[in-house]
Amino acid sequence: MKNYRFCASIFCMKVLAAGFLINYPVSALVAESCIGEVFVSCNVAKNKHLQVCIEPATDNAEPKFTYKFSEKEKKGLSLSENFSAKTVSPWKGVGRAINSSVVFNHQGYQYHVWQSFDRLDEEAELQAGVNVSKGDENIASFTCQSDNQTSIAPLFVLEDAMEAAGWCYHSGKFEWQNCAVKDQ
Prior knowledge:
Layout: H1 3-6, H2 10-21, H3 28-32, E1 37-45, E2 48-55, E3 64-71, E4 74-82, E5 88-89, E6 97-106, E7 109-118, E8 127-134, E9 137-143, E10 151-152, H4 157-164, E11 167-170, E12 175-178, H5 179-182
Antiparallel strand pairs: 1-2, 1-10, 2-3, 3-4, 5-6, 6-7, 7-8, 8-9, 11-12
């Protein structure tokens, strides 16, 4: 999913650059809890904070995505999904919005953390959030607030992390495959 595969136009290059420019500084407290790269870190409602990190492989563990949803004075929810779970949904290359997501599964619930950019709106900003569902039922949706604690990674960071870890996206089958297997 290298960025250049999707972005041949000058406008799309501006979109990618905008992704870098709209990242806001993250408070020291939030940044310390992320071992790897921040995908999304933001306030989503009063006293509610969402954070998703892309964590590198360690000596005894494969790379993974981590999810933290915390609410002031309450115990938060922490989840993780290994890259091998293949829960990243990349942008399909069509449509008005460039978007991608990673899904976390927990006790029958799915936490779809997404980022999106409206490529046809010259004043658009990169957005992110989480949609919670159980089966086909939508349970809750939260969108990141635009404040000084919001940090959203540039477009295609999920796809690039998967590729760097040896995974390739097979667009015909809409699934991730081990790159070594795909090339055979």
